[in-house]
Amino acid sequence: MKLLVDEGIPIKFDGGPSTDVAYPGKNGTILDGGYSWDFNGDHIADATGRTVTHTFTKPGNFTVNLTVTDSVGWKSANASMTALVNDTKAPLPAFDILDSSKDWGTITSPMERKTYSFNASRTTDDHDKYNYSGGTGLNVTWTIPGPIVGMTGTNHTFYGINVTFAWQEWNSSYTVRLAVKDTGFGSNKPNTGYLNRSVQVQIDVTLHADLKVEAGTLKLNPADPEESAQMTVTVNVTNKAGRAAAGNVATQVLAISGGVTTVVATQADWFDKTGNPKGSHSIASPETVTLVFHLSLSGQGNKTLQVYVYDSSEPYTWITSENRASLPVNVRQPAWQPYAIYGSVIGIIALFVFGMYARRKIKAGEWRPLRGRRQKGGEEKEKPRREIKEEKKRL
Predict the structure, then answer these.
(1) Best CATH choice for the domain 211-331 from the list 2.60.40.10, 3.40.50.300, 1.20.200.10, 2.30.40.10
(2) N or C of the chain: less Cβ packing under 10 Å?
(3) With contact defined as beta carbons under 8 Å apart, do 16 and 50 qualify?
(4) Quick one: three-class SS letters along the chain?
(5) Is the pLDDT of residue 338 over 80?
(6) Domain spans of the chain?
(7) pTM metric for this prediction
(8) Percent of the chain having pLDDT more than 70?
(9) Residues 6 or more apart from 62 whose CB is under 8 A from it?
(10) How does pLDDT run across 13-61, given as a tens digit for each residue?
(11) 254 near 305, Cβ under 8 Å?
(12) pLDDT digit string (tens) for 141-178?
C-alpha cells in the first residue's frame, strides 16, 4: 500500500482495523497504549495510540510501521505502508561574494572593475542538492544588472552555483537576482525560490579624476566691467593626489542674475603652474593648472559669476561645491553711453526748434515748401515780392 501526500500536511493514521485473538472464539484486548507507530523506518516509536496525527515535514519515501501489543504482552508483526511525500516548498536562495585577493573571504561591497566570485552554496532545499557533476539537482540562475567587463548590454544571465565577473562601473545599488529551482520530487512539479539582493559597488579612486577649484583663486579683471566690454576670469584647478589623470575636462563660466543662469563662456586658455601655455588640456595627479576665460557680460547691474569645472570620469557623487567658485560682479554702464544719450536729446531738441522756425518762415511766405516750387519744365517760377503782398491783402 502506498500513501501519496504533500509535505507539511497533517495525516491521521488509525490502527483500529488491528485484531487480537486470545484463543479460538475469543478476542484479546488491545489497549490504546498498545499501538506503536514508526513513521521514518528507524524502528523507534514516534507515537502511540490507536489514532494518531503525523505531519511529514520533508519530502521523500518513508516506511510507516505499526506494531500492536495486546493486554498480556503479545506483540504483532509490523504492518507497513510506504508514504511518498511530495516536495512542495521552494528552495531558500542565499549567496556570498568572495574576494580571491583576501583568501576568498566574504565581502558585502565589491569594487568596480575587480573580479569577484558570487557563490550560492549556502542555498538550502528540503530535498535536492546542487549536483557539481552536472546531473539532476538544483538549478541556479543569476540575473546581473549593469555593465560588466568584457560583455555588452546592461542585463546579464549566468548559470551555476558559482559565477565570476567584474562590474565595469560603480553604482550605489545593483539588484542581483538569484533564482534556484528544485526537481519537484514526487509530483514532478518544480519549485523555484527567488532572492533579490541590493549590492553597492564601490568607487575605485585610482580610476577617476577628482578636480577641485582652489579656494581664493577666482579673479575678475576688471572687477567691475562695463556692459559688453571684454574681461578675463582666472581660476586655479587641481586634480587631487592618488587619482587618475583628468583627460576630458569640461569648463564653464555662468552668469546668474534674477534667478536666471546663462552660460557666458566654455573655452579657456590653459597655463601650467609656471605660467607657460599648456598645450594638452589634461590635468595629471596632483597637478594644478590655471584657466583664463575671455568673455563679456550683457545687462547692467549686480550678477554672480560662477566657474564650473569637472572631468567626465568623475563620479557624480564627487561633483560638489569643490568643483565651483563664485564671485559677485557689478556690470557698469559703458562710459560712452551717457554722451550718446545727451547727444540724442540735444539733437531732438535742435530738430524741434528748427522745425518750428521753418514753419514760421513758410507761413510768412519767406520760404516755400519744396513741393509745388517747380513747374512742368522743371524751372522754378518766383513771384515778385509786391505780388505776394497784394495777394495777402486780398486774402
Answers:
(1) 2.60.40.10
(2) C
(3) yes
(4) CEEEEECCCEEEEECCCCCCEEECCEECCCCHHHEEEECCCCCCCCEECCEEEEECCCCEEEEEEEEEECCCCCECCCEEEEEEEECCCCCECCCEEEEHHHCCEEECCCECCCCEEEECCCCECCCCCCCCCCCCCCEEEEEEECCECCCCCCEEEEECCEEEECECCCEEEEEEEEEEECCCCCCCCCCEEEEEEEEEEECCHHHCCCEEECCCCCEEECCCCECCCCEEEEEEEEECCCCCCECCEEEEEEEEECCEEEEEECCCEEECCCCCECCCCCECCCCEEEEEEEECCCCCEEEEEEEEEEECCCCHHHCCHHHEEEEEEEEECCCHHHHHHHHHHHHHHHHHHHHHHHHHHHHCCCCCCCCCCECCCCCECCCCHHHHHHHHHHC
(5) no
(6) 2-86, 96-202, 211-331, 341-394
(7) 0.70
(8) 91
(9) 39, 40, 41, 56, 82, 83, 85
(10) 999 888 877 666 667 788 888 999 999 988 899 999 999 999 999 999 9
(11) yes
(12) 999 999 999 999 999 999 999 999 999 999 989 999 99
What does the block give as the cell for 307?
566657474
The span from the CA of 311 to the CA of 256, in Å, is 23
Domains 2-86 and 96-202 fall in the same CATH topology? yes
Q: Amino acid identity of 52?
A: V
